[in-house]
User: Fold RWD domain-containing protein 2B from Trichinella nelsoni.
Amino acid sequence: MISITLNLFIIAFINFQLCACSADNENAAMQEMTFSVPISVLQDERRFDENKLKKLLKPLGELYKTPSDEGIPISSTEATLSVEKMMVELNRLIQKEYSFLYKQYQKLKTVLQAEKCDNTTNAYTITLQNTNCESELIIGGSPATNCSDVESRRPLSCSILSKAASGDEKIIGAYCSVHLEKSFPKKKSICKLSRYPGEEKFKTFVPEDVSSWFHDAIVYVPTGIRPLSSIKHSKNYRGRQGIAGLGMLPHLGAVQMNVVTIFRKNGKTTEVLSLINASDSIEIPKVFVTNPIERPFGDEIDRILRKAFDTMELSSSEKEDKLQKLYNATISTKVKHRETPYDTDDAYVITEVAGVLDESKEHIGSIDKFPSDGNLQIGWKEADKSALRLKRFAKPPKGCKDCLKMQLEEITVLRSMFREPEELTFDNVENLSELEAFVVNETALLEDTSLESVSFSLKLKNEMNCTLVLSVVLPFTYPLCKPPLVVIGCSSLDCHKLDALNVQLRQYISSKFAQAPFLYDIAQWICETKIPTDDEAPIDEGSDVLETSEQPDESKVFCRYWIYSHHIYNKVKRRGMLELAKQLDLTGFCLPGKPGVVCVEGDRRDCIQFWKQVRKWTWKKISLKHVEEEEDSSLFVRKFGTFEELNFATQPGSRHMDFGLLYKFMVDHGCGDMFIFCFGMQGRDSNL
Assistant:
């Protein structure tokens, strides 16, 4: 009756095909759907339990806004009469999918629960009784009064959502399965369980313990609008949700929702970013995020921040620096949950907490009043005890201890090089003491203490004897994940030259940062760099990255891109490639480590889009090593079933990969000849 095909095990997702066989009038039909199951993507990701987060957020705005109105009970007599009128329609639904198994007419046995949800919507849970009558005859118009009860080894139970109008009642949602009554709630309102927060308002009630796509559903009619069959998307791996289509979500498939927890110090007061509401209470923003890497607080808040910085008379480079500081300081925490009230059969929410602590008003903390964006209005409010409990999400994770230790070592080297008091000055010397305490015993992780980013100024003279002041901020995850934030100041340069110099610096950092201590390299580059004149354009340090034609033929061309990187460590980039490949329907693999290798295959325009997006990210060196193309679609065969992240570490936790295992993997997938294009040498199986 149901067969399951497991396509390929990968680190980010397991892709399944679920083939449901049905028969109508003895003619077999097949329905096939695909869905992706995310498993642990990266070992070093922070995670937090959903139930604990709900408790923390309860006084600060619910994590998920859901209607909680209970229904009005319907009398047993009235409910029985109403359901009896819908039995022919319910039997028609049973026959549509399982006529070969349930040939006999199913009559109403018991109404377990009946409620009026609103003026026109009713919800029922019922059990059915098998009879000796042919279902087709009763559906065709024969009376069911002469049907006798027949014992069944597979008795059915159903939940029904109906619409009542002009005295008639019509089924708009139904879920039937064997012995389903065991999963029905005994003390909960069926209407409350059937409510949905979107415009549809209601969904078919499907008990969570039997919602899996692998559970045998005899009848399943969700509310909502099913996506067109031509739209490619993965079904919700969490199971049937009782509603199809988008629901209240912005797009099909996985939808990221971020809980925005941003704090700043205003004098001695800690303030939290809140939605502005009529009750004047603190409400933590929750936003759907389309680009978690570049806009972790969502498109609306990003627009608000840009408008706010526009009013501060900042230069374009200063504005971008503040935004970059903010986004670099963001700490992400994944929320562990199975399903959410917003989920549908075709779209589902993945929740994260995006936290920032701006105690020195370096970026977002420098904004006192925010403009609005449509109906969204945000502002600062004094953090009460409930809000302060969320500060944990804005503090550095334990995994950054190595980063902070490396920062201390690099600062020690800088102090030995720049010994004059005016050459190297720290904005807050106490930060260094806290940093040392954190590295020694991790006291900064305690809830009653805080740890600020280290910031300092470095005075340099370049070859033209021009005095430059570097303002440096070290993110918590520098140097293993994020680059340092550096801005050049110089009183003897006009704003145009200074902006041009800062553009050059950002391009240099973007192209050369290699997840390693980098401050001395920056200082040396500044000392050796010629200050641009007004008519000189900024130098593009990333111009050596191999370009590809972005003019695909009108006919469909299939490609396989082989990308080589100096290294791939950053978990945000790795997750970003997994998500991007999934969005573009590309298959292939990513091998993190040093060096890093990425292969993607699919439509040429999609491969170009993938390469165009990935090369924008911060890399020490990345290049497109080789392109395979085939214009005849019948000759192009995908060598990979999905896009996966490989793990061929030489030992647990190592950043170095066993390239013998990579070569074997490539040979197994029919692309061993590409090894020499990537590495310039013949491959060899490490097991031989």
Observations:
- The first strand starts at residue 2 and ends at 9.
- The chain has five domains: 2-45, 72-195+198-244, 253-394, 398-528, 558-679.
- The chain has 16 helices and 27 strands.
